[in-house]
């Protein structure tokens, strides 16, 4: 939430900002939360009218007004050019210049304010920078090729045991959604846990400039986004922008088991804490025991002492998620009792979830996204489940030159972990061929051209006691398979 007078000041270009004087009746008006999708507008929201590849937020302003938004950041030129249909809108609205607070004297209090800006996205980012500087939370930034959202959720769950914590919603990690999260800061927040993603070099550095993190966590470096950045080295350099952006009195938390991440210790001015299984890791997993779909328990060594912990997080790979959260908690001064409590109840469900399917089957739904590393980790979870294990694997996108090799790695892993493989989509033959080459029998490998074909085949194949893992990149919509097979 942000006060209206602060918002009007903050969205102006810094070089020409003017102090805004508004009528007393408007002084205490609070605006927020920030939304960029008109369907998510609730009473009091701040809508940002963005121009995208397929549509323009200015077209939906009538709906935004009707849904009760308090204000919207708009481009007057876009508003005039697109001319949205106002014929069915009963609620008043007014277009105002952000520097002219006196104009509010003639605006009815129930009106939606259209705040005229040069560029709605740039105005949102300016507002986020201004709002961030009003508060002094410890900001924790998290990046990595995979595991960002899971790590963010667990870090926030643990730290909130002792400190009032703001966290990014969903996977809000872009130049649009991170500023929206920052505008949710209040004086009550002691910590903010923010996910930082990237599409190109320089973007994490930009996000860090907005958020000003004191603590940075890098989970790993892998071939996700290889199609855009061109090489693993370029991806590592992009992820290293977070460690490089930390202050000298900050803390950089690095995965000791990933050589590219561990090397970032030389690129940060901050203090370094490492985590992993390596003997030299500061926060080290001595032993991990998986209980399949019932979570993991692990013994962690830190400063010569060992601590036994349990979490409902599914899969051995979540030992890394857990260790990163422990390291962050220790840096901000939490005790082991709080750490253990936070790990036992990590709050909102993470991306991997277990649902009941038709005919008495269990479905492991890990359809949010996919890369070779995360898919192999999910297959290892499948391997620990009882019953007949069926891997339903879709295409992994944005791997660039690593596309063929990445899908071959996943096919070979499926042969080690699954009883049946259902490979779906354009890379299905590559996955299937690798599984056969790794020893999977022909009868155990099924190739489907698309999701609909996979659904039809699975409906005739599944039986009580089966466990299905469904995973693929976001763009191939593997969640439709889960929906079709749910009980």
From TrEMBL:
Pathway: Cell wall biogenesis; peptidoglycan biosynthesis. Residues 142-329 form the Mur ligase central domain. The keyword Nuclease does not apply. One of its GO terms (cellular component) is cytoplasm. Residues 34-78 form the Mur ligase N-terminal catalytic domain. InterPro entries: Mur-like_cat_sf (IPR036565), Mur_ligase_C (IPR004101), Mur_ligase_C_dom_sf (IPR036615), Mur_ligase_cen (IPR013221), Mur_ligase_N (IPR000713), MurCDEF_CellWall_CoF430Synth (IPR051046), MurE/MurF_N (IPR035911), UDP-N-AcMur_synth (IPR005863). One of its GO terms (molecular function) is UDP-N-acetylmuramoylalanyl-D-glutamyl-2,6-diaminopimelate-D-alanyl-D-alanine ligase activity. It is found in: Cytoplasm. Its EC number is 6.3.2.10. Its main location: cytoplasm. GO terms for biological process: cell division; cell wall organization; peptidoglycan biosynthetic process; regulation of cell shape. Keywords: ATP-binding, Cell cycle, Cell division, Cell shape, Cell wall biogenesis/degradation, Cytoplasm, Ligase, Nucleotide-binding, Peptidoglycan synthesis. Residues 351-474 form the Mur ligase C-terminal domain. ATP binds at residues 144-150. PANTHER family: UDP-N-ACETYLMURAMOYL-TRIPEPTIDE--D-ALANYL-D-ALANINE LIGASE. This is UDP-N-acetylmuramoyl-tripeptide--D-alanyl-D-alanine ligase. It comes from Chloroflexus aggregans (strain MD-66 / DSM 9485).
């Amino acid at each position: 939430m942000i006060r209206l007078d602060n918002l009007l000041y903050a969205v102006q270009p810094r070089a020409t900002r003017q102090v805004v004087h508004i009528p007393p009746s408007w002084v205490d008006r609070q605006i927020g939360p920030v939304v960029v999708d008109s369907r998510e507008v609730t009473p009091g929201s701040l809508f940002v009218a963005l121009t995208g590849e397929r549509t323009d937020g200015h077209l939906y302003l009538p709906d935004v007004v009707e849904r009760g938004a308090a204000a919207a950041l708009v481009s007057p030129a876009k508003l005039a050019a697109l001319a949205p249909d106002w014929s069915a809108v009963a609620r008043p609205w007014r277009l105002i210049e952000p520097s002219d607070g006196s104009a509010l004297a003639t605006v009815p209090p129930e009106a939606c304010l259209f705040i005229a800006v040069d560029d709605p996205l740039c105005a949102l980012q300016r507002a986020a920078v201004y709002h961030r500087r009003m508060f002094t939370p410890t900001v924790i930034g998290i990046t990595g090729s995979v595991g960002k959202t899971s790590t963010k959720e667990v870090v926030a769950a643990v730290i909130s045991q002792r400190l009032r914590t703001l966290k990014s919603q969903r996977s809000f990690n872009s130049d649009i959604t991170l500023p929206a999260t920052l505008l949710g800061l209040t004086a009550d927040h002691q910590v903010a846990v923010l996910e930082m993603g990237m599409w190109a070099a320089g973007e994490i550095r930009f996000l860090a400039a907005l958020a000003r993190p004191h603590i940075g966590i890098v989970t790993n470096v892998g071939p996700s986004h290889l199609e855009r950045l061109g090489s693993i080295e370029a991806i590592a350099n992009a992820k290293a922008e977070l460690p490089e952006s930390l202050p000298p009195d900050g803390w950089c938390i690095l995965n000791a088991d990933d050589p590219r991440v561990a090397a970032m210790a030389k690129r940060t001015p901050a203090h370094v804490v490492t985590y992993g299984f390596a003997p030299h890791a500061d926060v080290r997993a001595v032993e991990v025991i998986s209980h399949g779909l019932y979570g993991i328990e692990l013994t962690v060594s830190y400063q010569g002492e060992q601590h036994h912990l349990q979490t409902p997080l599914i899969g051995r790979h979540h030992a890394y998620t857990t260790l990163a959260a422990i390291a962050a908690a220790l840096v901000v001064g939490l005790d082991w009792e709080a750490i253990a409590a936070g790990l036992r109840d990590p709050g909102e469900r993470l991306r991997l979830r277990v649902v009941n399917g038709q005919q008495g089957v269990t479905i492991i739904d890990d359809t949010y996204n996919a890369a070779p590393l995360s898919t192999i980790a999910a297959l290892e979870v499948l391997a620990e489940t009882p019953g007949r294990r069926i891997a339903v694997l879709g295409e992994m996108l944005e791997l660039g030159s690593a596309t063929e090799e990445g899908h071959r790695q996943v096919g070979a892993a499926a042969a080690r972990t699954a009883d049946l493989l259902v490979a779906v989509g354009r890379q299905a033959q590559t996955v299937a061929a690798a599984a056969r080459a790794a020893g999977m029998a022909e009868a155990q490998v099924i190739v489907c051209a698309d999701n609909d074909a996979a659904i039809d085949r699975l409906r005739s194949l599944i039986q009580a006691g089966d466990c299905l893992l469904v995973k693929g990149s976001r763009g191939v919509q593997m969640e439709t398979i889960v929906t079709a097979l749910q009980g």
